[in-house]
Design a protein that fits this description.
The protein is α/β, with parallel strands linked by helices. The chain has helices at residues 13-16, 29-37, 77-80, 100-104, 122-131, 153-160, 247-268, 271-288, 290-295, 303-309, 313-326, 348-373, 443-454, and strands spanning 53-58, 85-87, 94-96, 109-115, 170-173, 200-201, 331-335, 379-384, 388-389, 406-407, 411-417, 425-426, 428-429, 436-438, 461-463, 469-471. The chain has a single domain (5-241, 290-471), classed as Alkaline Phosphatase, subunit A. The protein is 30% helix and 12% strand. Strand 13 (428-429) and strand 14 (436-438) form a beta hairpin. The chain starts with 12 loop residues before the first helix and ends in a 12-residue tail after the last strand.
Length: 483
């Protein structure tokens, strides 16, 4: 379904298309206008010091804690499921048999097994886990972002930190989280802050219409394999100059434009011209920065590294996230799934038997890559879905095999890198994986941990469109997780 600016009060459509595949063009007004919309009044809120980044891996649909990071092998069969737990390198810690590579790297990451909130609907859960706010705003619509929504963490970061190389401070890829009908889920934009603080959405997989990991697309309910609507299914933005245009020629055009604008400033007082010049310089920087252009060019990647990540949507997306962090983007959210990829109401075991190995490979490759490059010291990885799944397995009529329903009261979260102390397990759940029984954590604790990882001060505020202040921190970071 097409998405137009009239569908939402803060009109995200132009921003969704901001870095879509294809040439950005030379000094086209669309890019200059786009950068103009990125202008924002900076508020103090980030500590000085080394640049720190976060890669937020969002598993849309809701990953089952039982089949991943909180197995219950001693529970009855209708609770424990079909997968067996395997030991990790962390004494006493067991995870799913389908995550062997992560198990072998457990001394690089930590788990929180006690995140909890009260919402079982996708729309509400996605809003909560993207904004870090447990409350549901007035007039909330689970299938449509609105100006009354709380701002996403990406948007808060966008308002408090500065991007470099003309890239934004926060990016979402490879596409938005949507419903099966392609409605946009709320919580992914700036909401109350105004659209100028929306994150950049890099639509690198907009033509992939499957629900699994390309090129192994399959329906989340184990239906026959979906065919792609077009090729390629993943395409990073092309920042190459148009054919026949060299950097020297580009600079000559820029110099000519400068001469014209100086004359305009003399005639018009120059305020608007100076402003547009600033955004034009940003557009030119995107095209002329070798570092930025290299970050988006996956075709020049070492084939061995591509194989490590996996030549599929999961691997390509995480590799691009790693490159953006290297280019000093502060927060990258990677949506691994269109919307219901991890939503196994039925057929949970065959579907996760396909999905989890792909996730295991790509996330393990990301950990290794960041560690080998030294970026893991300043980059925090966070991975979870909008909620967990119900303790009891049941069969619904539309599915051949049983599955688990939505479950907000318990969610497992993986943290790694940055100031995260590796090899820890924070919090625990009851015998059937239904509720936390120790160190329960709220979405506000979760968000505070991310802001702390980025160096956001605990007295920072964000502002709505009427300049009313709101605290960035609404709880303390998760205790015991960081050094």
């Amino acid at each position: 379904m097409a998405f137009s600016p009239s569908d939402i009060t803060h009109a995200p459509l132009p921003r969704r298309q901001i870095l879509q595949a294809g040439s950005l063009g030379l000094m086209g007004m669309s890019l200059s206008d786009l950068l103009a919309w990125e202008a924002r009044a900076k508020e103090a809120g980030v500590d000085n010091g080394p640049k720190r980044s976060v890669i937020y891996i969002f598993l849309s649909g809701g990953l089952s804690q039982h089949e991943s990071f909180d197995p219950k092998p001693e529970a009855p069969a209708q609770i424990r499921g079909e997968f067996s737990p395997i030991p990790t390198q962390t004494p006493g810690l067991f995870i799913s048999e389908h995550l062997p590579q992560l198990a072998a790297r457990s001394k690089m990451w930590s788990l929180v097994r006690s995140l909890t909130h009260s919402q079982n609907g996708h729309g509400a859960g996605i809003h909560i886990m993207n904004t870090g706010m447990s409350a549901i705003p007035p007039g909330f619509n689970q299938n449509k972002p609105q100006s009354t929504d709380f701002p996403s963490m990406l948007s808060v970061v966008n308002s408090l930190t500065s991007g470099v190389h003309s890239l934004p401070a926060s990016v979402m890829l490879p596409r938005l989280v949507t419903t099966v009908r392609h409605d946009i889920r709320p919580g992914q934009f700036a909401g109350m802050m105004g659209s100028q603080h929306d994150p950049w959405v890099l639509n690198a997989a907009d033509k992939c219409d499957g629900y699994g990991a390309c090129p192994n697309c399959f329906h989340f309910s184990n239906k026959p394999k979906f065919e792609h609507t077009a090729q390629p299914v993943f395409q990073a933005p092309n920042l190459n100059l148009p054919d026949g245009l060299s950097l020297n020629r580009l600079n000559r055009r820029a110099n000519l434009l400068d001469t014209i604008e100086r004359a305009q400033r003399g005639l018009e007082g120059g305020r608007a011209a100076r402003s547009m010049n600033k955004y034009r310089e940003g557009a030119l920087s995107l095209l002329t920065s070798g570092k930025v252009r290299a970050a988006f060019n996956l075709e020049n990647e070492d084939p061995k590294r591509l194989d490590r990540y996996g030549r599929d949507l999961f691997g390509w997306s995480l590799l691009l996230a790693r490159r953006l962090v290297e280019t000093d983007v502060r927060m990258v959210q990677v949506n691994l799934g269109r919307g219901s990829t991890w939503d196994q109401h039925g057929d949970i075991f065959p579907v996760l038997g396909k999905l989890l190995p792909l996730l295991d490979r790509s996330v393990s490759a990301l950990l290794d890559d960041l560690n080998e490059s030294g970026l893991l010291e300043t980059t925090t990885i966070v991975m979870c879905g909008e909620f967990g799944r119900t303790p009891k397995i049941k069969k619904l009529g539309v599915y051949k095999l049983p599955g688990r329903d939505h479950w907000g009261p318990l969610n497992s979260v993986l943290f790694a890198g940055g100031s995260i102390t590796p090899g820890l397990t924070v919090g625990s759940s009851d015998k059937i994986g239904a509720y936390p029984i120790s160190a329960a954590q709220s979405p506000e604790n979760f968000a505070a941990t991310i802001y702390e990882a980025l160096g956001v001060r605990d007295d920072a505020h964000w502002y709505d469109v009427n300049r009313r202040p709101y605290r960035v921190y609404n709880a303390r970071p998760i205790e015991g997780l960081t050094t």
